[in-house]
Recover the amino acids of this structure.
């Protein structure tokens, strides 16, 4: 999360390069980055354009591909909003309150990050299937989660939670409480203070966390395929469609969707950079 | 970095070529429901081969959706033999990667299909929705579980069985068949990528009222959880022919041609046919067929050759990009 | 705190209780319940059956493969992370922003895309596939492919933790050491490394957790050969699809235990070395 902000650190133009190892470390960094990341990504980007831009456009403009992209990005956005709402409350509780078991709560937040996605997938599908603990209760009220687009949402919300909480927490704990005191002295109620003063101050950080949860959710595969119905046009996420295209020997089609997702990832990174710049200015 | 990569590569070479002389490993890329079958056949063949030559053969099997497995072989999975759900997937390996000749199906008896199967309905115990035949599947409120025909072989057989039924039913034609199949897939709540995934969805997750399933997969489900399901044979189904083939280029590279060929021929022997019948695949051998007669009810079966003009045609008409199956999922259709 | 003169920066009691309950409830529902169900299903037939599923040869070989893949990927990414952080944090050069953005890119790329790119490069239908096959070098569907996919998905972890930490610490100490005649290497070992050691450990821990648990990317390049190219998460999927429900959840429980162990170590690290980590997260 923090590396994004780096670009903004003012260039300290003192004596240039007094520390040794510049050539070696930069050389290795660039070499490793090129071999592991850039060359393979190049293979991805080139593949669908073998048939020109028209070919690329034909691949991604089919209703099924568009529907899967809409589902992946739409649900990821919704999941990120849910995560930022609850992430805000959880971070607030963790930073501001003291109660027994707080340490445990704090440690558990990172579970979705540490738990393999396949494990999360089978656990969530066991819970939310009509015969599972939560699914059985919901089905009694006519709500279906597993094997519907809402299953996608549940899995993405699970995956994204640590990103919003962990982005907010350090900023919140550093934020000075003077403004809140001032607001209170000026006659604002506590709720007014929270919603008018505290939350707006946290906005850039909140958005950063939301963007990270979104990026993670949009690309998520392992936990979703066990829980979503995988129906074309309804509950088929873009990464699954990549796999399906691959299994139909449609390499160009698979790569085309991959390129769209890669472009989205890149745009997200740029947006995160901008958000970090904003957050830095606000602090 | 380079050194590490070449070390890794060396390790990989070592891992794949070290098994030789008296220790032979064969890799079988197979489709989803054959896990149990090829474990049994591998053991049977290993015993026979050991008695004959003194060598130890281990059959490793990689399972997945039939299309997924073909894709892996095309991308370089070093399978010595492929045992997939339908000829079209092996055709794809021959065409795309040229790892075996186009006429691979002529290399073994019975068009390289040592055992057959069909598509049946698996319903919950007591058949609460009284599902007897294909028209019952599209009644209001019925949910049908079947995998994605794009990636699963079993699903393609199920799709064709439904199509053949609707086309051959009294007053049926291609237009009616398309309408019926489209209607059927609108009753499907989950499309798993492989047959086994669908079975798990139906059995473990309690989704759906009927599972369109391989006969062998349905029988296995009965065996795994007795008293929970019934198998229903529709009035007509399809002769499902899962073929086997040698991956020529790979066996030559591994120098495993002799043993891989012997294994494929073993699949046709009376001993292997009994194993196949025991694991719920319809055997070719009359003796095995007679012994397990009660297990395989006789119903009229369509074939891909006579009803669909062969796999190449069926594949391009129904399952290729923009084919009939894709049209079902177009909005507004 | 007395009821009447409440601290203006403290929430009213009712609000505190409400928010705490929301936070705890959300975490319990979304994070704890999935974890519980994994253990519940794993122990459905008793501890003996679960244990048997873990020590069965195919499961053990999956454990071994996962450990081996992580054992190669994590040290490589650690060396890369240190080298990238040294170049970026201790030197000035143009193009730094682009370099850092590219290092972060694998974080927001879908795991499925991460697998796909290596298929396009090393697959038989890809760039180098036939060349490699002619020379009997196996990358895809063998250990190197699994390692590459693992490296890709854990690529930014060490770098993104170390870069802000080292930027924050500045260059003065190293510059002093150099001007006193220390060599570059001994400056790094004696000055830089002690300063970053806990942050480094923290990053390696997270990197390792992700490496052991990766599913989507590895699934694309593995080939799923039982007992040979199945990692732990893939073995979970295989057992799950094999009517071996208890076995699948037993291996899943093992992975969940590893995840919990990661969280414990992480909490200990955060607790003992709070200052250094706080400095790192201030960005």
């Amino acid at each position: 999360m923090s590396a994004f902000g780096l670009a903004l650190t003012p260039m300290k133009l003192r004596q240039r390069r007094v520390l040794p190892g510049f050539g070696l470390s930069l050389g290795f960094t660039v070499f490793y980055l090129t071999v592991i990341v850039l060359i393979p990504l190049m293979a991805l980007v080139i593949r669908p354009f073998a048939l020109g831009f028209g070919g690329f456009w034909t691949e991604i403009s089919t209703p099924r591909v568009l529907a899967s992209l809409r589902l992946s990005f739409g649900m990821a956005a919704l999941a990120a909003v849910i995560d930022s709402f609850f992430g805000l409350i959880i971070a607030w509780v963790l930073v501001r309150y003291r109660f027994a078991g707080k340490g445990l709560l704090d440690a558990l937040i990172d579970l979705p990050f540490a738990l393999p996605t396949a494990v999360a997938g089978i656990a969530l599908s066991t819970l939310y299937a009509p015969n599972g603990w939560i699914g059985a209760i919901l089905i009694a009220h006519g709500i279906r989660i597993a094997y519907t687009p809402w299953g996608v949402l549940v899995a993405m919300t699970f995956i994204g939670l640590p990103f919003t909480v962990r982005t907010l927490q350090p900023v919140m704990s550093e934020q000075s409480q003077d403004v809140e005191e001032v607001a209170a002295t000026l006659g604002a109620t506590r709720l007014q203070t929270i919603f008018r003063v505290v939350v707006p101050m946290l906005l850039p950080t909140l958005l950063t966390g939301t963007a990270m949860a979104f990026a993670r959710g949009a690309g998520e595969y392992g936990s979703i395929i066990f829980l979503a119905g995988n129906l074309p046009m309804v509950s088929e996420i873009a990464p699954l469609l990549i796999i399906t295209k691959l299994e139909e020997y449609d390499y160009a089609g698979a790569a085309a969707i991959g390129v769209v997702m890669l472009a989205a990832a890149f745009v997200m990174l740029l947006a995160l950079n901008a958000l970090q710049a904003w957050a830095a200015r606000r602090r | 970095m380079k050194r590490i990569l070449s070390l890794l590569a060396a390790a990989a070479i070592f891992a794949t070529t070290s098994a030789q002389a008296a220790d032979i490993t064969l890799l079988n890329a197979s489709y989803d429901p054959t896990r149990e079958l090829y474990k049994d056949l591998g053991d049977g063949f290993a015993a026979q081969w050991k008695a004959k030559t003194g060598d130890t053969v281990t059959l490793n099997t990689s399972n997945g959706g039939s299309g997924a497995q073909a894709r892996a072989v095309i991308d370089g999975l070093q399978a010595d033999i492929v045992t997939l759900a339908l000829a079209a997937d092996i055709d794809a390996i021959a065409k795309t990667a040229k790892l075996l000749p186009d006429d691979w199906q002529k290399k073994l008896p019975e068009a390289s299909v040592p055992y057959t199967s069909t598509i049946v309905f698996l319903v919950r115990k007591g058949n609460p929705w009284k599902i007897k035949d294909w028209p019952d599947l599209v009644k209001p409120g019925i949910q049908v579980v079947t995998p994605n025909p794009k990636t699963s072989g079993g699903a393609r057989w199920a799709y064709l069985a439904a199509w053949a039924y609707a086309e051959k039913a009294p007053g049926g034609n291609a237009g009616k068949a398309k309408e019926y199949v489209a209607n059927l897939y609108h009753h499907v709540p989950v499309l798993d990528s492989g047959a086994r995934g669908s079975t798990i969805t139906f059995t473990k997750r309690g989704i759906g009222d009927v599972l369109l399933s391989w006969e062998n997969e349905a029988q296995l489900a009965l065996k795994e959880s007795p008293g929970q399901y019934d198998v229903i044979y529709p009035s007509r189904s399809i002769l499902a022919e899962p073929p086997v083939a040698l991956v020529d280029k790979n066996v030559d590279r591994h120098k495993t041609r002799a043993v891989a060929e012997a294994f494929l021929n073993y699949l046709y022997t009376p001993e292997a046919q009994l194993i196949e019948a025991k694991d719920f695949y319809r055997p070719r051998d009359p003796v095995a067929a007679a012994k397990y007669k009660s297990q395989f009810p006789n119903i009229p079966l369509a074939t891909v050759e006579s009803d669909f003009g062969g796999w190449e045609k069926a594949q391009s008409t129904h399952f290729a990009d923009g084919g009939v199956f894709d049209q079902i999922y177009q909005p507004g259709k | 705190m007395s009821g009447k003169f409440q601290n203006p920066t403290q929430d009213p009691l009712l609000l505190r209780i409400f928010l705490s309950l929301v936070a705890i409830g959300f975490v319990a529902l979304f994070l704890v319940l999935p974890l519980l169900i994994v253990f519940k299903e794993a122990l459905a037939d008793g501890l003996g059956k679960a244990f048997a599923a873990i020590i069965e040869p195919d499961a053990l070989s999956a454990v071994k493969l996962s450990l081996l893949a992580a054992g190669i990927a994590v040290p490589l990414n650690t060396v890369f992370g240190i080298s990238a952080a040294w170049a970026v944090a201790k030197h000035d050069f143009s193009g730094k922003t682009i370099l850092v953005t590219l290092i972060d890119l694998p974080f927001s790329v879908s795991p499925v895309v991460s697998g796909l790119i290596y298929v396009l490069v090393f697959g038989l239908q890809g760039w180098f596939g036939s060349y490699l096959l002619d020379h009997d070098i196996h990358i895809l569907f063998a250990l190197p492919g699994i390692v590459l996919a693992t490296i890709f998905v854990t690529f930014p972890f060490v770098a993104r933790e170390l870069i802000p930490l080292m930027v924050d610490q500045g260059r003065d100490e190293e510059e002093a050491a150099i001007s006193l005649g220390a060599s570059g290497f001994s400056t790094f070992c004696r000055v830089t490394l002690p300063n970053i050691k806990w942050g480094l450990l923290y990053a390696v821990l997270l990197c390792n957790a992700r490496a052991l648990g990766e599913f989507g990317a590895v699934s694309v390049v593995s080939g799923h050969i039982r007992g040979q190219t199945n990692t732990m998460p893939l073995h979970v999927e295989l057992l799950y699809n094999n009517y071996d429900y208890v076995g699948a959840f037993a291996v899943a429980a093992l992975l969940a235990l590893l995840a919990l162990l990661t969280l414990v170590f992480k909490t200990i690290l955060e607790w003992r070395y709070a200052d250094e980590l706080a400095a790192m997260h201030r960005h």
Q: What stands out?
A: Residues 13-21 of chain B have pLDDT under 50 and may be disordered.
